[in-house]
Specification:
This protein has about 325 residues and is mainly alpha-helical. Helix content is about 85%, strand content about 0%.
Length: about 325
């Protein structure tokens, strides 16, 4: 790629990112619908093979999606309201515990700006930060209806979409590349769902053992945030540790923190790479960077879709002579 092409490519990237950012509220439902369609495509094919008509298959899958979203939304809303109702209790415990923490550090001659730290992490502000986060998630939820409609049409036209895709893959090689793309994205979500569920189960087991309040909620957060590459699982530990230090002693809180570290390290650093193998082929730096960029463009949902969106770009660049160098940069080898 020569100097002029490099500058042109950079200009195109800036224009595309700006366009995606400005039109995120319209484009995001389409991306979500496409990925949901790819995730459930193997199930669609299996149901069609046993003789179910396409309309029945589409309704079954749509029903599954709606039920999962409804149960998850109801649980998070109920748990959030319960935490808000108990905020005064946590506020009182926080101010009772603060002098002991300050005294502990002062015994080791560690001096910090305690007034600023306490003001930043007091429970009432933590709840406000959480409210802002759920408000942003609520803006995404307003687009769920459009996403479901788009998924419905994609499911109804699944056989037609397959024929259209074959039209653009006139050679056997291009057909295999398209099948590989769909397989990789589907496999990523399947494995990520399995490892996220395992993470949530192990987190619940640990928190239930210590009888920590809201153990189920923190397990669900661990399950959801594990979809965010690199840092999602560690972010999920923050609210659990915050409640633990208010409800339990320092030893139990330390053991919970150690358990989170072990669970996230074993699953994120060993289990996921071993099961995914070379399917993704993205470097760790690229995965983390993509999470930041797509999160900035599309908000929290962009973090969940960061890996598959970047995978799409990598495979597209692999098949382009002009931008093959971009694919090399994205690869992990």
């Amino acid at each position: 790629m020569d100097k002029n092409n490099a500058f042109s490519t950079l200009a195109y990237i800036v224009i595309i990112i700006t366009g995606l950012k400005l039109s995120s509220s319209i484009i995001l439902p389409f991306f979500m619908a496409i990925f949901l369609f790819i995730i459930f495509l193997p199930l669609v094919n299996k149901l069609n093979k046993i003789g179910l008509p396409n309309i029945m298959t589409s309704l079954i899958i749509l029903f599954i999606i709606v039920i999962v979203l409804f149960l998850l939304g109801t649980f998070l809303t109920t748990s959030g309201n319960e935490i808000v109702n108990n905020i005064s209790l946590y506020q009182e415990k926080f101010y009772q515990l603060t002098p002991n923490i300050i005294a502990f550090f002062e015994d080791y001659n560690i001096s910090l700006e305690w007034k600023s730290i306490i003001s930043f992490i007091e429970p009432i502000k933590i709840v406000n930060y959480t409210t802002v986060f759920f408000k942003s998630m609520g803006n995404v939820a307003m687009n769920v209806s459009l996403t479901l409609i788009l998924v419905m049409f994609l499911l109804l036209e699944s056989s037609i979409i397959s024929q259209k895709a074959l039209y653009f893959t006139k050679t056997e090689q291009s057909k295999k590349k398209l099948e590989l793309l769909v397989t990789r994205i589907n496999r990523y979500f399947v494995i990520k769902t399995f490892t996220s569920a395992l993470t949530g189960l192990l987190v619940w087991t640990v928190l239930a053992y210590f009888d920590l309040q809201y153990a189920v909620l923190f397990a669900v957060l661990a399950f959801l945030l594990n979809y965010i590459p690199s840092i999602g699982s560690f972010i999920a530990a923050i609210p659990a540790l915050f409640v633990a230090i208010l409800q339990l002693d320092i030893i139990d809180t330390s053991l919970i923190a150690l358990s989170y570290l072990i669970i996230n390290t074993v699953i994120g650093s060993f289990l996921e790479p071993k099961t995914m193998g070379k399917d993704l082929g993205l470097s760790t730096f690229v995965v983390f960077s993509s999470m930041v960029i797509w999160g900035w463009i599309f908000g929290p949902i962009g973090m969940f879709l960061a890996v598959p969106l970047t995978l799409l770009i990598k495979i597209a660049c692999e098949n382009s002579k002009l931008y093959h160098g971009v694919a090399v940069i994205l690869k992990d080898e």
